[in-house]
Design goal:
With 131 residues, this protein is of the alpha+beta class. It has a single domain, classed as GIY-YIG endonuclease. Helix content is 44%, strand content 18%. The protein contains five helices and three strands, in the order αββαβααα. A three-stranded antiparallel beta sheet has the order 2-1-3, sandwiched between helices. Strand 1 (24-31) and strand 2 form a beta hairpin. Helix 4 (95-103) packs across helix 5 (105-117). The N and C termini lie far apart (45 Å).
Length: 131
């Protein structure tokens, strides 16, 4: 009989990597040059902020506001929830609202959690995860 012995540290690493493998982020960045905020969704915050600050997209809105500074981000296990949260922020069309969620991110998390629960069945992936 053959037995397999797991190295506990390898097991934890596998669990950790799988937990964050498909994470999505809604981020808010700020340009002092433009005195404006920008909200976006990504699966890699560092990469995306670098793209904003390097004029990766030459004629984009964010290329005119370099440097951009990350103000806050929110983590989601489901991309449809992340896109929902991003659209929610953009629909508000309010600098004051953005400033409030930067100061009180837990408030926004609760708002989105309740809004996602209120969505019709079938919203997002077949997952019960919360933002």
């Amino acid at each position: 009989m053959t037995s397999v012995v797991w190295d506990f540290s390898v097991f934890i690493l596998i669990l950790f990597e799988s937990r964050f493998l498909n994470m999505y982020f809604v981020y808010i960045i700020y340009s002092e040059k433009l005195n404006r905020f920008y909200t976006g969704t990504t699966d890699s915050i560092d990469k995306r902020i670098n793209e904003h600050n390097s004029s990766y997209y030459h004629n984009s809105y964010t290329s005119k506001g370099i440097p951009w500074v990350l103000k806050v981000h929110f983590t989601f296990e489901d991309n449809s929830h992340a896109y929902f949260a991003e659209k929610f922020i953009k629909r508000m069309k309010s600098k004051v609202f953005i400033q409030k969620i930067i100061k009180q991110p837990e408030l926004f998390t609760e708002i989105i959690r309740n809004a996602v629960r209120a969505q019709p069945r079938g919203f997002g992936a077949a997952s019960s995860t919360k933002p």
